[in-house]
Amino acid sequence: MNKILTLLLILNVGSIFAQSGPVVPCVNCENFTERPKPITGTWYNPEQSGTGFSFDIQNDKLIGFYYGFDAQGTAVWWLFSGTLEESKETGTLWEITTELQRFKDGNCINCEYSGSPELTESPGEIHLLFDQIGHASFTVNGGDVQNLVPFYFGYQTKQFFPDDNKYKTPEIEGWWTIYERRNVEGIPELYSTIIEDVYFNRWSYDMFQVKNSWYSDGDYFPSAPEVLDIGFFRCELILEDLQHKTYCTYYSGYFLEGVTYNIPLANITADRIFGESENGDILEMKRLYLNLCMSNDCINSTPKNN
């Protein structure tokens, strides 16, 4: 853990307001009907290592901490909190504008408790925008925009198109649960399903295989196959507005009528993946286990916890 903190806190005394950070175009996100919440955890700008944020999101409430340095290079931390509001900006999910708080005279480690720290004068206001569950931007006191992404330290990362987009996604090999909600004739939740113990194969990288028992009309068939191909995953570059943009899709063939889901690149995170079809069908995947085996034989093994 000390190595992780050291990596995060490499001193960078430049202005935190400089324009930087990974840009991750969200193809067709302006047509999404759902607003998934951003993931909790540590976020940072990989182009300005040394400062960062911690976000904790419960329901529609966000509490955050900024850790960094002042103009003299002294370490500082700011607290902020508020309610996530539906953004009116095209292609943006959530936003929050709230006051930064700074404290002093708090308790030291191994010291007798002396009472709550004192709130000092606010250093200003922060404005946060979340356009994908793993991508955000912020400004402080009207300064320049800086982009943020989650900090992944427990997973290997991958760049789908390193010459075109520098955004890194975490390794998603392992066992997941898939939730699909089909929008049939404008009636959401008419058809939905949950598929557990879905294996994402690292070698083909585009095939989901499920290791599960098969149920039909409430009856259980023990002789059913243990491994079923239920869909495939693709990431490619498309030309939009005369620019290349990364576009990921997952084709689900679990229902009788297959559906293709659009998955923005920054909607692929360590433990959550979110997508939506043109018809408003919803796809959400949540990681169950991490299983980094070295061959395809792992699809026949029992999932093990991290």
List keywords for this structure.
mainly beta, 9-stranded antiparallel beta sheet, 46% strand
Distance between the termini: 17 Å
Count of separate DSSP helical elements = 1
Shape: elongated
Whole-number average pLDDT? 79
Number of strands: 23
Cα Rg:
22 Å
Across the major sheet, the strand order is 4-3-2-1-11-10-9-6-5
Q: Identify low-pLDDT runs.
A: 1-17, 212-217, 220-225, 299-306
Main β-sheet description: 9 strands, antiparallel
User: Structural class per helix/strand content?
Assistant: mainly beta
Percentage of residues in strands: over 45%
In the residues, how many domains can be counted?
Answer: 2
User: Roughly how much helix do the residues carry, as a percent range?
Assistant: under 10%
Return the string of H and E elements. Answer: HEEEEEEEEEEEEEEEEEEEEEEE
